[in-house]
């Protein structure tokens, strides 16, 4: 054993780097820098983490979805109030409402809607309008004669039977398929002279009806821009009773009866 040699090797080689404490300091500085860098990056890619977002309240959740759909009213789709009557859903030749009540101008309606219709008419009068109750309940025979009169008029003007039928059905329901036979609707004008044309919509009594009918459980049954669905042209004078809840929902959301009923169908399937 050569002890002196061993002894000469014992001093540690001269270190070129810093002391252990210095290394630790450098390591801490590097780590600190990395953390600061990562925090900066995070601010760049993370909205809400920067000081500019500090005033945003926790409840302000950004959303890209359209307006929330209000909950559907809990109505009975099989009730008499919501019965859909059209060419695909006829009442038939023999249908008569269970009870009829005279309202005004010799017109009758289903007795169950008489109170609300009287109230609507009185309130419209109190708002300054004159009222002519043009047409309420119509039996099958009356509807048949109205329908035939239109067909005859158009064929007399030179249309073919098919053309006359197509034009008639835009304004007059096929016999047995008219809501008027249900006794749930009412054609209301300002006078017997007022023409039943879409152009009277949006003003005078028609505007009042549009704005207030739902308060009495009525809707404008054939609204503007819904002809593709209802198959009937805009009729601002034709009110249909559907009950207050359904009426409010339909008028507020701009839905015709077909669209309203379809919402429940969609719900039951999905
Ligand atoms: Zn009508």
Helix percent band: 40-55%
Largest sheet: 4 strands, antiparallel
Instruction: Report the bound ligands by name, code or SMILES.
Output: zinc ion
How many helices does DSSP assign?
9
Return the CATH topology of the domain at 80-140 and 172-269. Muramoyl-pentapeptide Carboxypeptidase, domain 2
Strand content: 5-15%
Across the major sheet, the strand order is 3-4-6-5
Task: Name the assembly state.
Answer: single chain
Order of helices and strands: HHEEHEHHEHEHEHH
Given helix and strand content, the structural type is: alpha+beta
Structure description:
It is a single chain. Among the domains are: 23-50; 80-140 and 172-269, 2-Layer Sandwich (Muramoyl-pentapeptide Carboxypeptidase, domain 2). The model is unreliable at 1-18, 24-29 and 37-54 (pLDDT under 50). It is of the alpha+beta class and 270 residues long. The relative contact order is 0.12. The chain has a 4-stranded antiparallel sheet with strand order 3-4-6-5. A two-stranded antiparallel sheet has the order 1-2. The chain contains 9 helices and 6 strands; from the N terminus they run H-H-E-E-H-E-H-H-E-H-E-H-E-H-H. Helix 4 packs across helix 5 (161-169). The protein has helices spanning 3-9, 20-45, 114-126, 140-156, 161-169, 204-212, 227-230, 244-253, 257-269; strands spanning 100-104, 107-110, 132-135, 185-189, 218-222, 235-241. It binds zinc ion (ZN). Zinc ion binds next to strand 4.
């Amino acid at each position: 054993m050569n002890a002196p040699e061993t002894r000469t090797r014992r001093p540690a080689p001269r270190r070129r780097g810093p002391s252990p404490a210095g290394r630790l300091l450098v390591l801490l500085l590097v780590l600190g820098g990395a953390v600061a860098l990562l925090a900066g990056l995070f601010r760049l890619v993370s909205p809400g983490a920067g000081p500019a977002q500090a005033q945003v309240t926790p409840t302000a959740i950004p959303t890209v979805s359209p307006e929330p759909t209000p909950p559907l009213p809990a109505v009975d789709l099989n009730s008499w109030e919501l019965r859909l009557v059209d060419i695909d859903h006829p009442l038939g030749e023999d249908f008569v409402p269970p009870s009829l009540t005279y309202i005004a101008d010799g017109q009758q309606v289903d007795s169950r809607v008489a109170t609300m219709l009287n109230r609507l008419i009185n309130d419209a009068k109190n708002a300054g309008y004159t009222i002519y109750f043009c047409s309420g309940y119509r039996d099958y025979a009356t509807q048949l004669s109205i329908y035939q009169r239109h067909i005859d008029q158009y064929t007399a003007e030179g249309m073919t039977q098919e053309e006359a039928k197509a034009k008639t059905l835009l304004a007059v329901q096929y016999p047995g398929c008219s809501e008027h036979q249900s006794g749930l609707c009412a054609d209301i004008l300002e006078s017997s002279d007022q023409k039943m044309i879409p152009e009277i919509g949006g003003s005078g009594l028609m505007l009042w009806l549009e704005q207030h009918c739902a308060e009495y459980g009525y809707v404008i049954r054939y609204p503007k821009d819904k002809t593709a669905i209802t198959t009937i042209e805009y009729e601002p004078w034709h009110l249909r009773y559907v009950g207050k809840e359904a009426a409010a929902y339909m008028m507020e959301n701009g839905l015709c009866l077909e669209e309203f009923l379809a919402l429940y169908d969609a719900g039951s399937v999905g």
